[in-house]
């Protein structure tokens, strides 16, 4: 599989921080038999953020495969992560083994993904970020490793900060789950940014244990031209390597 080149990002928890870290071109490398997937960091016992270069964490990919990062590219050493954070990982299989894991890998590159909880909105809610209604477009959404994952496009400007949330809106008459369908709303607060170009972002939300029994998730969003109603299967699979490449192929990507 051809080498994948990412723009790296640091995560600001709770906000979509529009800053960018790029790899030094002199350090670009080509990796043989490189693969790509969405995964969850498993670092039990840790508190708060820690640098990727510290190691000592596992990765669970959306298909349930457990991988141990035996090697990590030195360019990534100071990228910070935390237990249960989501990532897009470019990796190469290694030949050794580790007990409790399906494979050991070398992490060639990665992108941290904004990871936050689903919020509840009711008639007493005053948080402006949760009540926002700015335009946004869902590109793709799926369930993987018990997370709702959303890829989205929006209008942004250099240096701007946007806020992204997925809410259970209890102001509406919908009783969740309704006939096996759980209804949520994807909300965007542009923070008064009018936007000068299109950008792409990624966000993951853990599915609460008490969410109830359902088979489908319905996500509403205020679209750029028309409102969206995106329905995903609760037990569907993660995008393939080829489709992930399409999801991250955006020259104006700034997350």
Automatic annotation (TrEMBL):
PROSITE patterns: PROKAR_LIPOPROTEIN. Coiled coil: none annotated. Residues 118-232 form the NigD-like C-terminal domain. It holds the Pfam family NigD_N. InterPro entries: NigD-like_C_dom_sf (IPR038143), NigD-like_N_sf (IPR038179), NigD-like_OB_dom (IPR024299), NigD_C (IPR035376). Residues 56-113 form the NigD-like N-terminal OB domain. This is NigD-like protein. The lineage of its organism: Bacteria, Pseudomonadati, Bacteroidota, Bacteroidia, Bacteroidales.
């Amino acid at each position: 599989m051809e080498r994948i080149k990412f723009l790296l990002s640091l995560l600001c928890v709770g906000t979509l921080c529009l800053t960018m870290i790029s790899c030094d071109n002199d350090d670009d490398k080509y990796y043989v038999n490189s693969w790509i997937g969405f995964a969850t960091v498993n670092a039990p016992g840790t508190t708060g953020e820690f640098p990727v270069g510290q190691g000592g964490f596992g990765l669970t990919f959306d298909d349930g495969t457990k991988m141990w990062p035996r090697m990590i590219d030195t360019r990534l050493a100071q990228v910070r992560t935390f237990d249960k954070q989501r990532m897009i990982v470019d990796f190469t299989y290694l030949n050794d083994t580790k007990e409790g894991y399906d494979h050991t890998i070398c992490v060639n590159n990665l992108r941290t993904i904004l990871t936050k909880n689903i919020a509840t909105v009711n008639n007493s809610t005053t948080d402006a970020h949760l009540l926002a209604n700015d335009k946004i477009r869902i590109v793709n959404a799926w369930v993987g490793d018990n997370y709702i994952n959303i890829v989205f496009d929006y209008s942004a400007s250099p240096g701007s900060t946007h806020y992204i949330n997925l809410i259970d809106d209890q102001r509406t008459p919908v009783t969740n789950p309704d006939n096996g369908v759980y209804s949520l709303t994807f909300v965007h607060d542009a923070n008064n940014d009018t936007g000068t170009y299109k950008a792409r972002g990624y966000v993951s939300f853990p599915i609460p244990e008490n969410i109830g029994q359902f088979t489908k998730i319905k996500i509403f969003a205020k679209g750029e031209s028309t409102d969206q109603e995106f329905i995903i299967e609760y037990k569907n699979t993660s995008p393939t390597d080829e489709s992930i490449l399409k999801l991250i192929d955006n020259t104006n990507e700034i997350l």
